[in-house]
């Protein structure tokens, strides 16, 4: 097994004495990369020209998300013969956490993140957030909202936007920033706690055994995991006296869901801005990022040099197969690519997809469902 080196130890080395190799999936790399690292897929290592060109006197340090896959790299590969190779202990997550130990730096990060919401990204982030809350009546007098934080960029930004709108004091409401640990490994949990601390979000963490439960499920484990997580969140939120839970789905999630329903589900439906719970009386689900674009969330994240969890699935290091609503990312990614392709010839395609579920003409619909009951156009023909 490959030798390990911690990031703190790595900082003691001369930066010119080693090369960092990132072996994670593209989706994780898009969330951030250690400065100066080279990205090479594990299956490409043996025939990698980039790796072969690295000077033989330099150490090679491989890293994945949490340090498991990099540890399993075969250091007997011909391209690594005679080289001094290491696996970065705790991987990319360990690197991020080690960068958040300085209290002064943490306070600086918090101030910068909040200032960017108030000024630089006010129009792109706060305005559509406040608009969605107003037009869909997501925040009401006396609400106690459980802001559900998964550890990703969307939910972390949502928490900061809630803090900002609460400062405006137009409506009196309470917030509880709720984090459920469904069985995270210690590195991922540490990253969530570090980011919450850096952003000044006072989180309430509770634990469940969801990952262990779905670990043995072969069919649709992501869907089951999403359903179970939501149930646990509702239950805990109600226990804490909340009447609403807020999830971090954004505008792009909405239009992708509309298109996916048509292409893969044979139905026209959307992700609603708010829903009453059928299993938890008096509870409501709200989506305040409903009008916020994903590109603007990414821009805010990158401007503030923040690094969040992309997926913390416990049965794979670098899981990029599941989405917060239980859909697989392969379908969602295909839909995202399709929308991007359509946008090349129709710049309004995204807003048109969104508007399509606001402008449904029942006179031209063959059949539709209302409260579970089917209605056919021939009923009133």
Helix count equals: 14
Low-confidence spans: 315-326
Strand content: 5-15%
The CATH superfamily of the largest domain is known as: HUPs
**Main sheet properties:** 6 strands, mixed
Tally the structural domains. Answer: 2
Q: Which structural class should the secondary elements be placed in?
A: alpha/beta
Mean of residue pLDDT values: 89
The CATH architecture of the largest domain: 3-Layer(aba) Sandwich
Q: Span from first to last CA? A: 73 Å
Quick summary:
This protein is an alpha/beta fold and 381 residues long.
What does this structure look like?
This protein is an alpha/beta fold and 381 residues long. 40% of the residues lie in helices and 14% in strands. It contains 14 helices and 13 strands. The strands form three sheets. It has a six-stranded mixed sheet with strand order 8-7-6-9-11-10, with helices on both faces. The protein has a five-stranded parallel sheet with strand order 1-5-4-2-3. Helix 8 links the parallel strand 7 and strand 8. The protein starts with a strand and ends in a 5-residue tail after the last strand.
């Amino acid at each position: 097994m490959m030798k390990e080196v911690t990031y703190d130890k790595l900082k003691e080395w001369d930066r010119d004495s080693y090369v960092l190799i990132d072996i994670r999936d593209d989706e994780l790399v898009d969330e951030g990369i250690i400065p100066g690292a080279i990205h090479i897929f594990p299956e490409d290592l043996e025939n990698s020209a980039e790796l072969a060109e690295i000077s033989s006197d330099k150490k090679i340090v491989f890293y994945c998300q949490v340090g498991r896959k990099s540890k399993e790299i075969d250091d007997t590969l011909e391209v690594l013969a005679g080289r001094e190779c290491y696996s970065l202990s705790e991987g990319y997550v360990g690197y991020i956490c080690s960068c958040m130990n300085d209290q002064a730096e943490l306070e600086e990060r918090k101030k910068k993140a909040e200032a960017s919401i108030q000024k630089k990204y006010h129009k792109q982030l706060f305005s559509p957030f406040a608009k969605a809350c107003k037009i869909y009546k997501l925040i009401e007098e006396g609400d106690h909202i459980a802001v559900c934080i998964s550890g990703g960029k969307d939910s972390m930004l949502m928490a900061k936007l809630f803090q900002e709108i609460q400062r405006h004091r137009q409506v009196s409401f309470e917030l509880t920033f709720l984090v459920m640990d469904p069985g995270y490994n210690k590195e991922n949990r540490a990253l969530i706690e570090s980011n919450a601390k850096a952003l000044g979000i006072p989180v309430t963490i509770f634990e469940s055994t969801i990952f262990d439960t779905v670990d043995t499920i072969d069919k649709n484990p992501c869907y089951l995991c999403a359903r179970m997580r939501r149930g646990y969140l509702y239950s805990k939120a109600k226990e804490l006296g909340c009447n609403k839970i807020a999830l971090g789905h954004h505008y792009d999630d909405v239009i992708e869901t509309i298109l996916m329903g048509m292409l893969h589900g044979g139905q026209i439906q959307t992700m609603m801005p708010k829903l009453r719970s059928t299993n938890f009386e008096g509870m409501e689900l709200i989506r305040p990022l409903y009008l916020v674009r994903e590109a603007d969330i990414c821009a805010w994240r990158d401007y503030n040099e923040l690094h969040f969890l992309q997926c913390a699935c416990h049965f794979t290091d670098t899981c990029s197969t599941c989405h917060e609503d239980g859909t697989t990312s392969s379908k969602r990614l295909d839909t995202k690519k399709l929308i991007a392709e359509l946008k090349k010839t129709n710049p309004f395609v995204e807003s048109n997809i969104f508007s399509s579920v606001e402008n449904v003409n029942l006179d031209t619909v063959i059949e539709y469902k209302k409260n579970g009951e089917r209605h056919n156009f021939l009923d009133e023909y």
